[in-house]
Design goal:
Elements (H helix, E strand, L loop, with lengths): L5 H27 L11 H37 L14 H6 L7 H12 L1
Helix pairs in contact: 1-2
């Protein structure tokens, strides 16, 4: 984290906390949403539409839960002093990359290599 200034770390921490707050707030609203009530009546098409909507909602919520986990991990790394260091090669992750994707754990080059390997 030596390549980051205190101000940059503070900015990134605030961005992470803001992202986390938005996600948790969204999840809380979804729980209170009256559309989550059990569907009564209607025909098979109405039920199928509702089930598809629920499936998509759960899929989105699953992604949001993963993102919250990544945010918590990044915040933990800030506290431990290891934030902004590529977990693959150990090089410093540039502030611009961290600012664009504060939950990243890899430098641009390592991430590209990982994606190339996934596509093979």
């Amino acid at each position: 984290m030596e390549h980051l200034t205190d101000e940059q770390i503070r900015e990134l921490r605030e961005a992470l906390l803001s992202m986390r707050e938005r996600l948790v707030s969204s999840a809380s609203e979804q729980i209170r949403d009256p559309s989550n009530v059990t569907f009564e009546g209607g025909d098979e098409i109405d039920r199928a539409d509702l089930e598809e909507e629920r499936y998509l909602t759960f899929r989105i919520k699953g992604r949001e839960a993963k993102l919250i986990h990544k945010i918590d991990y990044a915040l933990m790394k800030i506290e431990s002093g290891t934030y902004g260091v590529c977990e693959n090669c150990g090089s410093a992750i540039p502030f611009e990359r961290l600012k664009a994707r504060p939950v990243t754990t890899m430098c641009f080059e390592c991430k590209e290599l990982e994606e190339e390997q996934e596509n093979d």
